[in-house]
Amino acid sequence: MRIGIFDPYLDDLGGGEKYMMTIAECLLKNHSVDIFWDNQKDLQDLLKRFSLSLAGIRVVPNIFNSQTSFFKRLLATKKYDAIIFLSDGSLPLTLSKKLFVHIQQPLGAMQTTGSLLDKLKIARVSGFFCNSEYTKSFINKKFHLRSTILYPPVALFAKDAKKENIILHVGRFRIKNIRNDDYKKQGVMINAFKDMIAKGFKNWKFVLAVSVQEKDKDAFAIMKKTAAGYPIEFLVNKSNDELWDIYSKAKIYWHASGFGEDLEKNPEFAEHFGISTVEAMGAGAVPVVINAGGQKEIVSEGITGFLWDTLEQLQSKTLKLANDEALFNKLSKQAIQSAKRFSRQKFYQEVNNLILG
């Protein structure tokens, strides 16, 4: 089969891009796979960042950009047996034999008008699939679509390292819209940790492993200054292997995306799934994460970690783990086992069932 894949955010180096390129990696084993994109370096940077193997894949002109005419795009899609399209709020009309649309976040996704063209576009879709129940619930409610959940694959590469008194957070630093507010709430967590230190929390450090793009460097520098004088460290733009070094040493994992947001109005501000949380669990770090978005599908309260709604709960549950070694050891072991639910092998099987079934 000849399969085409389009991700409008391929230069973003985010979890969604890793997800789409892992689909490509899976299908490339037995099929011809094209990536619709105009800058091959973006793909090379992504493969290096996430340690993916896409030898033999072809990067072809991006027919889904605004410069390509409707008829040229339509004609180009005719030669594909299947096209997998990550929606950016739009739906394509293609002549491929099959069309699969991935919804990565509950962002209002398909901005349909109910027109005849929109109905035709939807009718041409062979299947919609989402990355979590959280995303699926919004899509189903708003658009009354039948969709499948295809949880992201999480490759676990935990190393044999001695655990240290480290609270870890892993995520991109990104300005949300035009406001000077970090999308992942890293500033919120820094302040929460500083408050714990002020109240006597000792012998622990907070490590933020973040990826920072050039456009966000000035805002990141401002946030970084707020941590000066505290046991807070930043690991910036580290490789996948380097991230597993710190995952393997950390005892506790923090995540706060969605805190303080109106998630009914802006559901996209919560974590849509939470790959880094699963990675941390796979390395034995116990998650203490916000009770919102896809995090609730990953963490079982008091079994594989803790969920929180307020910063006071974040702090108190962290202290509970930090001060009870037996509890930490129990939850750490259970977190490791739970993380195995999201194996790459299972993902490959589900991709093949969806696309080729």
Outline of this structure?
The protein contains 13 helices and 13 strands. With 357 residues, it is α/β, with parallel strands linked by helices.
Description:
The chain is an alpha/beta fold and 357 residues long. It folds into 2 domains: 2-150, Rossmann fold (3-Layer(aba) Sandwich); 166-341, Glycogen Phosphorylase B (Rossmann fold, 3-Layer(aba) Sandwich), CATH 3.40.50.2000. It contains 13 helices and 13 strands. It has helices at 15-27, 40-50, 70-77, 116-124, 133-143, 186-198, 217-225, 240-249, 275-282, 295-298, 311-322, 325-339, 344-356, and strands at residues 2-6, 32-36, 58-60, 82-86, 98-103, 127-130, 147-149, 166-173, 205-212, 232-236, 252-255, 286-290, 306-308. The strands form 2 sheets. The chain has a 7-stranded parallel β-sheet, sandwiched between helices. Strands 10-9-8-11-12-13 form a 6-stranded parallel β-sheet, with helices on both faces. Helix 9 (275-282) crosses helix 12 (325-339). The two termini are 13 Å apart.
SSE order, as H and E?
A: EHEHEHEEHEHEEHEHEHEHEHEHHH
Tell me the number of helical segments per DSSP (H or I, 4 or more residues long): 13
**Secondary-structure arrangement, i.e. CATH architecture of the largest domain:** 3-Layer(aba) Sandwich
Relevant CATH superfamily of the largest domain: Glycogen Phosphorylase B
CATH class category of the largest domain: Alpha Beta
Termini separation comes to 13 Å
The main β sheet shows up as:
7 strands, parallel
Kindly list the characteristics that best describe this protein:
6-stranded parallel sheet, elongated, single chain, 2 domains, 7-stranded parallel sheet, alpha/beta, Rossmann fold, 357 residues
